[in-house]
Design goal:
The chain is an alpha/beta fold and 357 residues long. The protein folds into 2 domains: 1-107 and 260-357, Isopropylmalate Dehydrogenase (3-Layer(aba) Sandwich); 119-137 and 164-256, Response regulator (Rossmann fold, 3-Layer(aba) Sandwich), CATH 3.40.50.2300. The chain has 12 helices and 12 strands. The chain has helices at residues 14-32, 45-51, 57-64, 89-98, 122-125, 165-180, 196-209, 222-231, 243-256, 295-307, 312-327, 346-355; strands at 2-10, 35-40, 68-73, 103-109, 130-136, 146-151, 154-159, 185-190, 216-221, 238-241, 264-268, 274-278. Strands 2-1-3-12-11-4-5-10-8-9 form a 10-stranded mixed β-sheet, with helices on both faces. It has a two-stranded antiparallel sheet with strand order 6-7. Strand 1 (2-10), helix 1 and strand 2 form a beta-alpha-beta unit. Helix 6 (165-180) crosses helix 7, helix 8 packs parallel to helix 9 (243-256) and helix 10 packs antiparallel against helix 11. It starts with a strand and ends with a helix. The model has no long low-confidence stretch (mean pLDDT 96). Bound molecules: 3-isopropylmalic acid and magnesium ion. Magnesium ion binds next to helix 9. Magnesium ion is lined by residues 247, 251.
Length: 357
């Protein structure tokens, strides 16, 4: 089959890691008889430099017309002082909202071969970590009303956390459906002891849960969840949470599994087209040095095959190849831990994975 893939390479290490994932997809195409038509569009800081805006209209239109979109990372110190609506990050938020991508799936799994790199105590890591975080992606404080005004103590700024019943219902359904394919357990994370939006979140999650009597749902307060993720991460299977809590907790989940350089993500809406990206940022400190870990982006490409293109065998092949390079002891600098092997460059790691597909 032929697929149209939009590429948003973005900034920093974005271009290097997207190129790695493209070579992996081409290899998959060769091996399984598919062809991928890649079209690159500008998004983030590079788009600001070229056009004056972080998310040009052509980018949104091109991505809408694609079967799916692969993104590297956006942002960097060069654009840090721009006003909020002109920052590179707007490109991401704009894409998520323009394509209606309200579901963000972030799996975090501790590879057996990386147990030594896990910063947690051996007995905790020994129990394993294999969870998937379902983060709401187009609502909450990221998209709520915001502004600056004169307050009692002078100038103040505000952002608003707001969730509708409909927004909570649809993300809860994604979580329950995901749980049905796993161990039928959902942990819903909120701050219902303080926030009204969290109280509604909790009510609605439990209402939706009635449609899923075979799935158990447990509520957890976000501060406790942050603690439980390092104290006893093996208790989690499917986590469902709001945009901001999911942003924070998914970074934490990535560190407890060894490195943020390993975790992929999928952003989906009601249709098939999705946005796939590593959960890490643009790492400007190592950009252009061929030192980035391409694995999170390569695994994002695998998620794209699975969720948007219905190519399950092909997705499995990529994941198996990544698993093999890690088991064989190949490492990039970020997952070196205490091992004394020579770290591979981004392109060398990509080569190792290509050889095993
Ligand atoms: C993420 C990132 C983004 C977010 C930023 C870059 C807008 O941190 O995808 O987790 O906060 O959603
Ligand atoms: Mg984040």
């Amino acid at each position: 089959m032929n697929f149209k893939i939009g590429l948003l390479k973005g900034d920093g290490i974005g271009p290097e890691i997207v190129d790695s994932a493209v070579s992996v997809l081409n290899k998959i195409g060769e091996k399984y008889g598919h062809s991928f038509d890649f079209t690159a569009y500008l998004a983030g800081g590079c788009a600001i430099d070229a056009t004056g805006e972080p998310l040009p209209k052509e980018t949104v239109e091109g991505c809408r017309a694609s079967d799916s979109v692969l993104l590297g990372a956006v942002g960097g110190p060069k654009w840090d002082t721009l006003p909020g609506h002109l920052r590179p990050e707007r490109a991401l938020l704009g894409m998520r909202s323009a394509l209606g991508l309200y579901t963000n799936i972030r799996p975090a799994k501790l590879y057996d071969s990386l147990r030594a790199e896990c910063p947690l105590r051996a007995d905790i890591a020994g129990r394993g970590i294999d969870l998937v975080m379902i983060r709401e992606l187009t609502g909450g404080i990221y998209f709520g009303e915001r502004g600056r005004r004169e307050g009692k103590m002078g100038q103040e700024a505000y952002d608003t956390e707001c969730y509708s019943v409909a927004e909570i219902e649809r993300i809860a359904r994604v979580a329950f459906n995901t749980a049905r394919k796993r161990s039928r357990r959902v942990t819903s994370i909120d701050k219902a002891n303080i926030l009204e939006s969290s109280r509604l979140w909790r009510e609605v999650v439990h209402k939706v849960a009635e449609e899923y009597p075979d799935v158990t749902v447990t509520d957890m307060l976000v501060d406790n969840a942050a603690m439980q993720l390092v104290k006893n991460p093996s208790q989690f299977d499917v986590i469902v949470t709001s945009n901001i809590f999911g942003d924070i907790l998914s970074d934490e989940a990535s560190q407890v599994t060894g490195s943020i350089g390993l975790l992929p993500s999928a952003s989906l809406g009601d249709g098939k087209c999705g946005l796939y990206e590593p959960i890490h940022g643009s790492a400007p400190d190592i950009a252009g040095q061929n030192r980035a870990n391409p694995i999170a982006t390569i695994l994002s490409a695998a998620m794209m095959l699975r969720y948007s293109l219905d190519l399950m065998t092909e997705a499995d092949a990529i994941e198996a190849a990544v698993d093999r390079v890690l088991r064989e002891g190949f490492r990039t600098a970020d997952i070196l831990g205490s091992s004394d092997v020579k770290p591979l460059s981004c392109t060398e790691m990509t080569e190792k994975i290509l050889e095993r597909i």
